[in-house]
Structures are given as C-alpha cells and as structure tokens.
Amino acid sequence: MKQQTQSQRTKQQLQRCLINITVTGIMALSGMASALAFDAEAKDDAVVIQAADPVVTPVIGTRFDNFYATEQLNFAIDPVSITIQKNGELRYILKISSKQGAVNISYEGIQCATHQKILYAFGQSDGSWSTARNPQWSDIFSKGTNLQHNELASYYFCMGNGNAGRLIDIQTRFEMKHPMSN
User: Fold this and answer.
1) What pTM did the predictor assign?
2) Around Cβ 57, how many Cβ atoms within 10 Å?
3) Considering its fold, how many domains does the chain have in total?
4) CA 138/CA 114 separation, integer angstroms
5) What single-letter DSSP state applies at residue 43?
6) Domain that includes residue 102, residue range
7) For residues 79 and 85, what is the distance between their CA atoms, to the nearest angstrom?
8) Is 1 among the domain residues?
9) Cα angle vertex 65, ends 71, 137, to 5°?
10) Cβ distance 130 to 139 under 8 Å?
11) 110 within domain boundaries
C-alpha cells in the first residue's frame, strides 16, 4: 500500500473542507428559501416570521446540561450554543444519550411564535457536522413521543408566542437547572 505524503493528505483535507463548506452553503440557502415567511395565529393577529439568519453550525461543546429524560433516553443542551436569531428563532445543540451509551448530537431551532422546530445538522464523532437533507419546520407536540422539543419550548425557551426573556436568562435556566413553571 502506497503511503501518502503530508502534502497529499493536506490537499485531500482541504478538498473535503471545501466540499463541506459548499454543501453547507447550498443547504443553508435552500433552508432559508423554505423559511422565508409563514403565518401563525397569535391571538387575533397573524405573525409573519422573517427569514432566519444563515445556518452556521457552532463548535460542539463538551458541557451539556440535562433537561429531560425518559426511561431509555436523556436529553441535554449546551447552554453556550444557544443563540437568538434576528427573527426570534432560538438555535441550540441537543445531545441525546441512551441508557446503553449511544449518543446523538444535533443542531436545531425552535420558533416560539409558531411553536415549531427544525433540524439543521447532525454532529459527527470527529466534531464535524453533517447537514440535514431537507430542513423543514414542523409542529411541536405536547403529547406522545419525542416530547423533548415541547419541554424546551414550554419550560426554557418560550413564553406564550414569544421568547422567554433575554439570551442570558434562557442560558441561566439550564445552568441553574431551573425551568419555568407553566
């Protein structure tokens, strides 16, 4: 088997990096097109959500705060990864750990005005991200399975149809393990 020179490895790494940047840019633009505007009922007024900021995946953190658990899964969030976009969308890194040791990391968003969620990317074991194939907004449900998004929206991120305070307030809820009471 032929050994690669340092120059060949560097060239291949740069090519992979450029491909990832290009794919991420294309996916971000297509995700922006699908998120340009949609209506939601808020009392008597219709709320129009403006286009979200481009998706730029953050560095995967090492400290996650647990906020919800089922019999088989633990859900945690990296409070440092939480951002509030210009359109009010909250973005964050979610970590799901099974009792058997499997771990999934994802970069997601929640829009309080419409009570919806979106999945942007999946974390890889090497710290990189794999962009979600077709990021689409979907409703957050308060019954059934996959209640982690409802838990985030109801007890940490949202108050009514708006965000529950400033970014520092939201981050502190996780760090202090002090959800809002509804």
Assistant:
1) 0.69
2) 19
3) 1
4) 9
5) T
6) 6-175
7) 15
8) no
9) 80
10) no
11) yes
Alpha helices in 60-128, H assignment, sequence order: none
The residues near 151 (Cβ < 8 Å, ≥ 6 apart) are 67, 68, 75
For residue 95, tell me if it sits in a domain: yes
CA distance linking residue 53 with residue 34, whole number of Å: 13
* pLDDT > 90? residue 29: no
> Is 59 a member of any domain?
yes
Tens digit of each residue's pLDDT (9 = 90 or more) over 98-157: 999 999 999 999 999 999 999 999 999 899 999 999 899 999 998 888 899 999 999 999
User: Does an H or E element contain 163, and which?
Assistant: strand 162-163
Number of neighbours of residue 114 by Cβ within 10 angstroms: 20
Identify the H or E element spanning 27.
helix 6-34
Q: CA dist 68 to 38, 49, 82, 137, Å?
A: 30, 28, 17, 22
pLDDT at 37 over 80: no
Q: Which residue has the higher pLDDT, 144 or 92?
A: 92
List CB contacts of 123: < 8 A, sequence separation 6 or more. Answer: 60, 93, 104, 105, 106, 107, 129, 130
Closest CA to 30 of 60, 52, 58: 52
pLDDT at 69 over 50: yes
| Separation CA 24–CA 57 (nearest Å) | 9
Contact indicator for 114, 137 with CB cutoff of 8 Å: yes
